[in-house]
Amino acid sequence: MQLLRVGAAALNQTPLDWQGNLARIEQAVAEARRQGVALLCLPELAITGYGCEDAFGSPAVAQRALQMVVDLAPSTVGMVVAVGLPVYCQKALYNCAALLVDGRLVGLVAKQNLAGDGIHYEPRWFKPWPAGQRDTIDVHGTQLPIGDLLFDIGGVSIGFEICEDAWVAARPGAGLAMRGADVILNPSASHFAFGKFAVRQQFVCEGSRAFGVAYVYANLLGNEAGRVIYDGGCMIATGGALQAVGPRLTFRPLELTSAIIDIDGLRRDEARRPSSRSRHDLDAGTITVPFAWPHAATPTANASPAAASWEQSVHLKHEEFTRAVSLGLWDYLRKSRAGGYVISLSGGADSATCAAMVHSALALAHADLGAAAAAAAVAHAPALSGQLARGDVQAATSAALTCAYQATANSSETTRAAAEAIAHAVGATYLELNVEHLVSEYRTIIATALDRQLTWARDDIALQNIQARVRAPSVWMLANLAGAILITTSNRSEAAVGYATMDGDMAGGLAPLGGIDKSYLREYLRWREHDAPLGLTSLPALSHINRQAPTAELRPAAATQTDEADLMPYDVLEAIEDLAIRDKYAPREVLTLLAPQFPSHRQADLVAWITRFFTLWARNQWKRERMAPSFHLDDRNVDPRSWCRFPILSGGFASELAELATAP
Description:
7-stranded mixed β-sheet
């Protein structure tokens, strides 16, 4: 019986952070050695970081990455370690996994299927490696194999599927299985999205079953480069069943997951399968390396594959949303070395969610890391670091988050009270600023220049927008004084139709809710009022938010302005958005599909709302182009720099909307 302990590490890397990335890799190798792991898989492009963007085009980046792998090699004596990096070969750049065996680099496997959809632009920088092809590359005077390789390491055959390779129909694993693979390693950079982890589990388990191998999956962790959040969740599977699952969305710099596998047992089970085919082409691209595998310390059963208890919550999406956005905010804060966050707190759902998430980020970081490590991670912000070191999350929130309620003549006591209650509930520093005199001064200046009075009947949009715009300089100033990041609170629903004021409520350096719809936010806040993610407490103060109808409060109170009256019901808006933007249906088709979903609404209203959506979508692309970076949370994002591109100037669906107007 040949028992091996294999492991996968999730790492929180940063693009081009050479020393930091290497230090975390070395820490993972050291922890794996401590736990008796003989074979360790690290994430895709872990050396450079996955999100280097066009910096991948610099030959110096690949050269330094390869040198770092060489420098890493001595720390792998007595182990087998796989780590990802970009590699130049024959005037092309490839996304590769390097295999280190007993202190030396023995070969490089190149990714065959590149991710080129959604947030991914791999074909912009990398070339896909042709299946079955092999070459050599010079590394410090030694010719090393590169390409579609299988490694025979001390009698154990190891192959690779690199991230996207496992998401395609013709998986390289099938060929590796025919060539005799015992273990398939998958170094990945698979971003977080709601429900995506279950899909990953399926292909990991199915790969282990169909290919008759032990399948070892590693992933990145955290907010690596600004927009994209990685959830970790390393996995090890055999025979179609998970043997170990690592935690997701944690705040620790690395998470190691390991399991003991029985190589002889895998081979025996595969030989017994009626569908098993003989494997004779064992020399095709196989690199043989002598190695004495250490025997696993104990043949006892692996730990239960059950993940952290929040994973079993009936409110899984709410748990994921809290942890993904909180992790995104924590990493953004520490990696940008900012002094904290500033929010213009309106007393509405979006800004309240952002304030709650900053508090959750600090609370979860403190819980995951402990007081000393959490404080050390933000040592650049002494006031925040000091409060975390003392374990006072409320005081830490006060040091890290400033909220300002900025009233005009159209603001209500309802929203003021809501803003104050939320700020105090999460522990934020709370300020009240009255900006009505600024609004009045601008109105007077422009009325004098135009030599006419400004009226709501004639100048509605301009009079609404000036209120939003005069609020921006104050919160920008607060952010500048604290060296903090100004959060813009716009959500995806507003971004889709441009229901936000450029240089007003869209002012800011980060839009954490830019990838989430308003209907879900309202549902989340109702839950958060009475319940809480594991390890946090509920926020009863959200009752002030939840009993209101969403409103911009930019018209006089007598107008009884609400968002849905200005636009349409939010559930209808999101349904139209999904059909039009995500699914790419034309306006007439949207009506056909929408009508059965909303039988209580008249067709005339649906036609009007569809027309409004398409018109506003086309008209406001320039706003989405200027929107602050947002966190990617699912495949409904409208951020043109990470998901959904659309021309700034277009025909505005004029012909399509004319056809819609004649719908029977």
